[in-house]
Design a protein that fits this description.
Length: 249
């Protein structure tokens, strides 16, 4: 799924007249300070979303969001509470876990003249109740695992108009690469998304009216919800490395 190398990509860009710029470099998880240059803690809207995990993390708390040695680890742990709080986001499930989410400081906006390539390598848990993702709302899922050994490539044009393609994903927690190449369609309104896994094109989807819309890039480890319940009784870890975002004009 990956671009060959930075040098090869720049050579290709120069030879075709395309100008490429790195938005997020592949080493953004090398240290806390480098991480904080390119990423923010939690979701863009806060700590809660549509599952049973509440996100925790800050510059002084890396127990659930840990960037180190080139790998980002998002760590979910069960919480003990006989009367658990509920999520502040619809559908307001009970909170059973503390976990981690991050979002890129730079939003992604495809225009008629600017496209993007987004790539990374992922060790994703697939046990029942684990719901890791690599996405940007509203909504394109480059990676989404919902308690099974399958990755969901999704594009939501509306909440009721969704295109999904599922590919098999090994359950041994080995790293595999994912990539999305985004470009504007000739109508100047829709975005074409080519999805790759392990350097093989798996499907192409289209985001209706996505051109010109700034979208957040999010990596998160949500729990239960669409991934089923009950979730794991112990610690769950989602590992991500070599995430890179480039744009072309």
């Amino acid at each position: 799924m990956f671009l060959p190398t930075a040098a090869a990509f720049l050579f290709f860009a120069a030879s075709t007249g395309v100008q490429a710029a790195t938005v997020i470099p592949s080493n953004s998880f090398s240290s806390v300070s480098t991480f904080q240059t390119y990423w923010n803690y939690l979701y863009p809207w806060g700590s809660d979303h549509n599952g049973s995990a509440r996100m925790r993390g800050s510059s002084s708390d890396h127990s659930h969001i840990n960037p180190a040695s080139g790998t980002l680890s998002l760590i979910a742990t069960p919480t003990s509470n006989p009367s658990p709080p509920t999520s502040g986001s619809d559908p307001h499930p009970a909170i059973h876990y503390a976990s981690g989410a991050v979002h890129a400081k730079s939003q992604i906006t495809v225009t008629r003249s600017t496209g993007y390539t987004i790539s990374g390598e992922f060790s994703a848990p697939t046990a029942r109740g684990t719901w890791p993702a690599f996405c940007w709302p509203p909504e394109v899922d480059i990676g989404e695992w919902k308690g099974t050994n399958q990755n969901w490539f999704n594009t939501f044009n509306t909440s009721s108009s969704v295109k999904s393609n599922l590919v098999n994903w090994p359950g041994d927690l080995s790293f595999h690469s994912l990539k999305a190449v985004l470009s504007a369609e000739s109508n100047g309104a829709d975005v074409r998304i080519d999805f790759y896994m392990d350097n093989t094109l798996r499907t192409t989807q289209f985001g209706k009216g996505f051109v010109g819309k700034p979208l957040w890039l999010i990596i998160n480890l949500q729990m239960e919800g669409s991934a089923g319940s009950p979730g794991p009784s112990g610690t769950t870890t989602y590992k991500i490395r070599n995430v890179q975002v480039t744009n072309t004009a």
